[in-house]
Specification:
Blueprint: E1 4-8, H1 13-24, E2 28-33, H2 38-45, E3 52-56, H3 62-70, E4 79-82, H4 97-125, E5 128-133, H5 146-165, E6 172-178, H6 186-189, H7 196-199, H8 206-219, E7 223-225, H9 228-237, H10 242-253
């Protein structure tokens, strides 16, 4: 029987490209997202002659994550890409409570719930590969994207901690993929198309980011920062004062129509 991969946030962007890479490597797929477009992604992936189950679910909730996990029908998950995420632009005081809690529930709570569930089974059989999509944003105080960047800082740190906790489970690997700005629907959904970073046409190709993540996952690497410029940003974030980093981020993320 083919191995089984679960990929969240797979309707578009990096998750969609990761799903293609898994399919190309012979994995059956469970793909999930919080939008109906996941069915179109599944139709595309089925042309590769692998089994694909598509689940439209709210991955910010325990119930949504449980629905996705139930689709395995008892089969072990050999590979999991916890890729679902949500962005949110504009100043924190201008964001509704419903919007910023949705970011936290998707990027942190739902992700941790999924990770705990799948890692428990992987560790029990001492076999499995987990990719968690963090971000270089986690290294930068995110002016006008404060909740999102902070959520990714949490995820980047969380992955490092759990990786250390499980260092004796040598059959289980945890890889953190840390991209920078990528050409996906992220900026549209985060209402950031009127920002410098949202309008920038030099954002990374999601297929390239996914290939970098997949290679690191297959090698069992702990981290991968995708893109040379992003590696430089991470290096700078370790030495520059937080106030300077926040001001740099402000220039990228503040609405050009802001007064």
């Amino acid at each position: 029987m083919a191995k089984l991969a679960l990929i969240t946030g797979a309707s578009t962007g990096i998750g969609f490209e990761l799903a293609h890479l898994a399919a190309d490597n012979g994995y059956d797929l469970i793909i999930a997202a919080d939008e109906a477009l996941i069915e179109s992604a599944a139709a595309d992936l089925r042309t590769k002659n692998i089994a694909v189950t598509a689940i439209e679910a709210d991955l910010s909730t325990f119930e949504g994550v449980d629905r996705v996990l139930a689709a395995a029908n008892g089969r072990p998950l050999d590979l999991v890409c916890a890729n679902a995420g949500r962005g949110l632009g504009h100043g924190f005081l201008d964001q509704s409570v419903a919007d910023w809690t949705k970011v936290i529930d998707t990027n942190i709570t739902g992700t941790l719930y999924l990770v705990q569930k799948v890692l428990t089974e992987m560790v029990a059989r001492n076999d499995g590969k987990l990719l968690i999509t963090g971000s270089i944003a986690g290294f930068i105080p995110g002016s006008f994207q404060a909740v999102y960047n902070s959520s990714k800082s949490f995820i980047d740190s969380f992955a490092d901690a759990v990786r250390n906790e499980l260092k004796d489970s040598d059959g289980v690997t945890i890889t953190t993929l840390m991209p920078g700005p990528t050409e996906t629907e992220f900026f549209d959904r985060a209402d950031m198309l009127d920002t410098q970073v949202g309008a920038d046409d030099s954002k990374a190709d999601p297929a390239k980011v996914a290939r970098d993540g997949w290679a690191a996952l297959m090698a069992g690497d702990a981290h991968i920062v995708s893109g040379f410029q992003n590696k430089l940003q991470v290096a700078a974030a370790h030495v520059l004062p937080a106030a300077m980093l926040a001001e740099r981020h402000r220039k990228m993320a503040e609405s050009v129509t802001a007064e």
